[in-house]
Structures are given as structure tokens and as C-alpha cells.
Specification:
It catalyses: N-(5-phospho-beta-D-ribosyl)anthranilate = 1-(2-carboxyphenylamino)-1-deoxy-D-ribulose 5-phosphate. Keywords: Amino-acid biosynthesis, Aromatic amino acid biosynthesis, Isomerase, Tryptophan biosynthesis. Belongs to the TrpF family. This is N-(5'-phosphoribosyl)anthranilate isomerase. This protein has a single domain, classed as TIM Barrel. The chain is about 35% helix and about 25% strand. It has eight helices and twelve strands. It has helices at about 15-20, 40-50, 65-75, 90-100, 110-120, 150-160, 175, 200-210, and strands spanning about 5, 25-30, 55-60, 80, 100-105, 125-130, 130, 135, 160-165, 185, 190, 195. The strands form three sheets. It has an eight-stranded parallel β-barrel. Strands 7-8 form a two-stranded antiparallel sheet. It binds ligand LGQLAAA5. Ligand LGQLAAA5 binds near residues 30, 59, 129, 140 and 185. The ligand O=C(O)c1ccccc1N[C@@H]1O[C@H](COP(=O)(O)O)[C@@H](O)[C@H]1O binds near residues 8, 139 and 168.
């Protein structure tokens, strides 16, 4: 199985022009409070100019159904990424009302296998991310990857994919790939001075393909 590549936190036309030419299977936009938050109208104008990615991910954090629907009215989202403390009930509601794939981000911790088992029943994929100083999402910090094979097995039993996020960069991606994740999700690790960086992406993709 080849690893799926998700590049997240596309912030500008310049970022998008670069990311759309890469080997990304998924490109993500942040519609939550963050320095990477984007305006749906801008995202739509970049898509009209440069084309749509294979899969477009909208990242939300404890958003209301109305907020998700408003973004979907402007941006052709394929996947709704819930990157907060959304409950299983809320995920079911989002799926029923939005009719899109749902990717649930879960914070890595001692209950991660139980969490994947519970949330995996109402999600199409799980993203495991790290928590740092109370922050969840875009931390730039990796967690211990020793548990990755167990997490993959748990996801496989449920018939879903499991992506790894948090502090992945060209310098450490080989170590992670040895644990055979289904997908990797990067934001800060492919940036230089807050912008997506072509050299970092090319180096990363060479490491993945080698
Ligand atoms: O990137 C953000 O600012 C962000 C804000 C709110 C929720 C999620 C966010 N990003 C997610 O963080 C991971 C990877 O981040 P990094 O590689 O450690 O910088 C990815 O899932 C993004 O979707």
C-alpha cells in the first residue's frame, strides 16, 4: 500500500499554485481560528484558476453545522476534517447533514486505541495528531511513533485509513515511513517563513519515493 500524502494549511494563492503541482493526494485548508485560517472566497478563486486537487479537505475545529455548510456553499469540499473535541453524536450529525467524507483528528495519548475504535465507527479516516501546551493542530511537534503499527491495525479492522500528523518533515519522514502509516499529514514541516516551500516538498517526496 502506498502512503497517502496530505498537505495542509494552504494559506495563499502562491501556496496553492505550488501544492497543486505536487504529489499530494489531499490538500487541506484551515477554516478554524489559526494563523493559517483562509477565506472560503479566496480558496474558491484559487481553485478556479489552478484546478481542483484530487481531494480537497476543509479543516474545522468544533464548528457549527451552519459554519460547515456556509463554507461548503463556496468551496467544493470532498472531506470534512473535524480537528476539535467533536463528539460521536456531532460527527453523525455532520455526516447526515453534509453528505461528505469525515476525517476525525484525535490527540495522541494513552487511550488512543480505544479512541480510534470508538471514533472509527463514524469516520472514514482518523488523523492522529500531537497535543502541545494545550494546543491541538498545527503544533509542529511529533509524538512517539512506536504505537503507529498498532494504530494502523486497529484502523484496518474497522476498514478505515489512519493518517499520522504532527511535526512531520523531510528530516524525520523516513523514520515514520518505517512504521507503515496509511497516510501522512504535513503543514509546518513543508513551510519556510510561514509559506509552503518547494525545496522542502521536493526533498520530502524524494524520501517517500525512494
Ligand atoms: O495548522 C493549523 O494551524 C491548524 C489549526 C487548527 C486545526 C488544525 C490545524 N492543522 C492541522 O495540524 C496537522 C499538522 O500540523 P503540523 O504538520 O504539525 O504543522 C494537520 O492535521 C493540520 O490539518
Amino acid at each position: 500500500m502506498t502512503v497517502q500524502i496530505k498537505y495542509c494549511g494552504c494559506q495563499s494563492e502562491e501556496d496553492y499554485k505550488l501544492l497543486i503541482e505536487t504529489k499530494a493526494d489531499l490538500i487541506g485548508f484551515i477554516f478554524a481560528e489559526s494563523r493559517r485560517e483562509v477565506d472560503p472566497k479566496n480558496v474558491n478563486s484559487w481553485i478556479e484558476k489552478y484546478g481542483k486537487p484530487k481531494k480537497l479537505v476543509g479543516v474545522f475545529q468544533n464548528a457549527t453545522l451552519q459554519k460547515i455548510k456556509d463554507v461548503m456553499n463556496t468551496v467544493p469540499i470532498d472531506i470534512i476534517q473535524c480537528h476539535g473535541t467533536e463528539s460521536i453524536h456531532q460527527l453523525k450529525e455532520i455526516r447526515n447533514h453534509c453528505n461528505k467524507e469525515i476525517y476525525k483528528a484525535l490527540p495522541f495519548g494513552e487511550n488512543i486505541i480505544e479512541d480510534i475504535t470508538a471514533y472509527g465507527k463514524v469516520s472514514d479516516a482518523i488523523i492522529i495528531d500531537s497535543v502541545s501546551q494545550g494546543r491541538f493542530g498545527g503544533t509542529g511537534i511529533p509524538f512517539s511513533w512506536k504505537e503507529v503499527p498498532n494504530m494502523m491495525k486497529t484502523a484496518e479492522r474497522l476498514g478505515i485509513l489512519c493518517f499520522i500528523a504532527g511535526g512531520i518533515k523531510p528530516e524525520n519522514v523516513s523514520e515514520l515511513l518505517r512504521q507503515h502509516p496509511h497516510g501522512i499529514d504535513l503543514s509546518g514541516g513543508i513551510e519556510e517563513n510561514g509559506k509552503k516551500n518547494v525545496q522542502k516538498i521536493e526533498t520530502l517526496e524524494r524520501m517517500i519515493m525512494s
